[in-house]
Design a protein that fits this description.
Layout (H helix, E strand, L loop, with lengths): L27 H16 L3 H15 L19 H13 L3 H8 L1 H10 L6 H9 L5 H7 L5 H8 L1 H5 L2 E2 H18 L4 E4 L1 H4 L4 E2 L2 E6 L9 H11 L3 E7 L21 E10 L36 H4 L2 E10 L5 H9 L2 H15 L1 E3 L4 E3 L4 E2 L5 H7 L13
Parallel strand pairs: 4-7
Antiparallel strand pairs: 1-3, 2-4, 5-6, 6-7, 8-9, 9-10
Helix pairs in contact: 1-2, 1-3, 1-4, 5-6, 10-12
Bound molecules: cytidine-5'-triphosphate (CTP) and manganese (II) ion (MN) (3 copies).
């Protein structure tokens, strides 16, 4: 053997949609660090930097063993100067000073808490921070008028920041299935988002709804929402109607990242699931002190008195419902399964490598000047000249 140093050199294709990314990650310390910098960039309105860190993290996620030295990374794609510096810092010193100082920065902490409120984006959070509002207490005391979404987000803050479990997702799936079956027989409901990729928890539960007969799905959402509301399942909902036909993203135009399906962003009222006695009162926390000894978020970021949530027989869960016509279902399913980076990479691959425009509605071939039909996700990967990647391997 020529190479006596036994340094494993990795080789990885450039686009995340060319790779199989499972939930198994041999380099979690490095990818957590890069993801934190990505999050900070995104919350600061620096989307370009955010994507660069996300791409770098995604490359490390597919490496088959832990990185031991920076020399192993030579030739890997998407590792820019900045990301490499962070990686080297961690490999050599055990931590990255930039990551540690970002974690501790008041700006980052305030952005995290405020954007953790459903309905509050980075821009609103930044405006509030510049007014001296850094936490929920200060937001309440400011007397700001919140919109309906933000008020609901604030009211249910503690519940919504708790990860949703698979069991809770399954319980909500049953409710949604009952709702759609009651208003229109034959409707199909598919769990999408992170749970379809095999994640054990999520920040919400995502569903795609369709009907095998084109057109029967029109007008479905308001009926489903009315049923759910009448049964007392909704704490908040906002339905946006389908605007695809009237949209200006025609052929040749880069389709917007945001799709135009009829959708409902909601907060469900879910009856609490029984937890094994040993686990109560939840997540190993006893009297608000976590297993790691840190005090759980104090009253500054709490929306109700400590312990009050545990006394309730229900919890609030974020749920997204999307309705697609069957002719667009494969594109909608692919688009709503994620991960967000995987989706972004698919669109980038389509545009740069294939001169095609991919959205959650359609795939357009700019050379042939025609839309390409697909009745399954496999069809879409084939049109794009990509090996099929199943949902469980789209965790980029
Ligand atoms: N999505 C979208 N348009 C939006 C919001 C989300 O197309 N306005 C897509 C995203 O691209 C993603 C999927 O919906 O593919 C799920 O988004 P989200 O729920 O935010 O992320 P998850 O991957 O499900 O992660 P989590 O478990 O945290 O919910
Ligand atoms: Mn989700
Ligand atoms: Mn998410
Ligand atoms: Mn979602």
């Amino acid at each position: 053997q020529e190479n006596k140093s036994e340094v494993v050199v990795f080789s990885v294709p450039s686009y995340a949609c060319q790779r199989r990314t499972t939930l198994e990650n041999q380099n979690a310390t490095l990818t957590d660090a890069l993801s934190l910098l990505a999050e900070n960039a995104e919350l600061s309105g620096e989307d370009g930097r955010g994507v660069a860190f996300r791409r770098a993290a995604a490359v490390l996620k597919v490496l088959p063993s832990p990185v031991k030295s920076a020399s192993q990374l030579a030739g890997l794609p998407c590792l820019g100067e900045h990301s490499l510096r962070v990686i080297k810092d961690i490999l050599e010193n055990g931590a990255s000073s930039e990551v540690e100082s970002t974690k501790e920065s008041e700006q980052f902490k305030a952005l995290k808490v405020l954007t953790g409120i459903f309905g509050v984006g980075a821009k609103t959070a930044d405006r509030w921070i510049r007014e001296g509002i850094h936490n929920l207490r200060q937001l309440r005391d400011s007397g700001h008028t919140l919109n309906r979404a933000q008020q609901a987000g604030l009211d249910h803050f503690d519940d919504i920041k708790q990860p949703v479990t698979k069991a809770e997702a399954a319980a909500i799936e049953e409710i949604v299935e009952k709702a759609v079956a009651s208003v229109l027989p034959g409707v199909r409901v598919v769990l999408t988002g992170g749970f379809r990729r095999g994640k054990l928890t999520g920040h919400d539960v995502d569903f795609l709804i369709t009907h095998p007969e084109e057109g029967r799905e029109v007008g479905l959402m308001p009926k489903v929402v009315s049923w759910l509301e009448a049964q007392g399942f909704l704490l908040y909902q906002k339905t946006t109607r389908n605007s695809y036909l009237e949209s200006k993203d025609g052929p040749g135009r880069p389709p917007s990242n945001i799709d135009r399906f009829e959708r409902c962003l909601s907060i469900f009222k879910l009856t609490r699931m029984e937890k094994p006695a040993a686990e109560a009162p939840g997540d190993g926390a006893v009297n608000g002190v976590r297993a790691d000894g840190q005090r759980e978020s104090d009253e500054l970021s709490r929306s109700e008195p400590a312990g009050a949530a545990a006394d309730r027989r229900w919890r609030a869960v974020r749920v997204d419902l999307v309705v697609s016509p069957i002719s667009q279902f494969a594109f909608a399913l692919l688009g709503w399964t994620g991960s967000k980076l995987f989706e972004r990479e698919l669109r980038r691959w389509a545009g740069y490598e294939k001169a095609m425009s991919l959205s959650s509605h359609a795939l357009y071939d700019n050379n042939q000047r025609k839309y390409l039909r697909a009745s399954s996700e496999e069809d879409i990967f084939a049109h794009l000249g990509l090996e099929y990647i199943p949902p469980s391997e789209r965790n980029a």
